[in-house]
Write a structure and sequence with these properties.
By secondary structure, the protein is mainly α. The chain is built from five helices and two strands, in the order ββααααα. α3 (about 80-90) packs antiparallel against α4.
């Protein structure tokens, strides 16, 4: 059994700017079991991966999402409804790991700004907001 992995702390960056994958053997299963046991540390100060750029971004996105919804929900009208729903579903588009997640986050940030401007303007064409 072989695993192709690009652990953030151990992999080098390739010429395309993405982490290079390394091949690991079946002995990696032992490490996977250890990581599974360490799952209880997620979100605590003892989380070994909690200080990575990706995790900091994830925590910032959660705070931003909560603030955005607290801001726009009082503005819910039939004209802003579709834009608010699209804004609420936006985190579903931020998927992947590493550079894939960063690229998806950049696209979502652009879309977020568009939706917020529509909502703050009092709504617009429903078909455009729901795209």
């Amino acid at each position: 059994m072989k695993f192709l992995l690009a652990p953030p702390m151990l992999s080098k960056t390739g010429p395309d700017g993405r982490p290079m994958q390394k091949e690991y053997g079946a002995g990696m299963l032992r490490n996977f079991r250890l990581l599974a046991r360490l799952k209880a540390l997620r979100g605590t100060p003892l989380d070994p991966f909690g200080r990575t750029e990706e995790r900091r971004m994830e925590r910032a996105l959660i705070k931003q999402y909560e603030a955005d919804l607290a801001d726009v929900l009082p503005k819910l009208t039939p004209d802003t409804r579709d834009a608010i729903i699209a804004l609420a579903e936006l985190p579903l588009q931020i998927r992947g790991f590493g550079p894939v997640k960063a690229a998806n986050e950049a696209k979502a940030a652009k879309r977020r700004e568009e939706l917020l401007s529509v909502i703050h303007a009092g709504g617009t064409d429903r078909a455009q907001a729901a795209e």
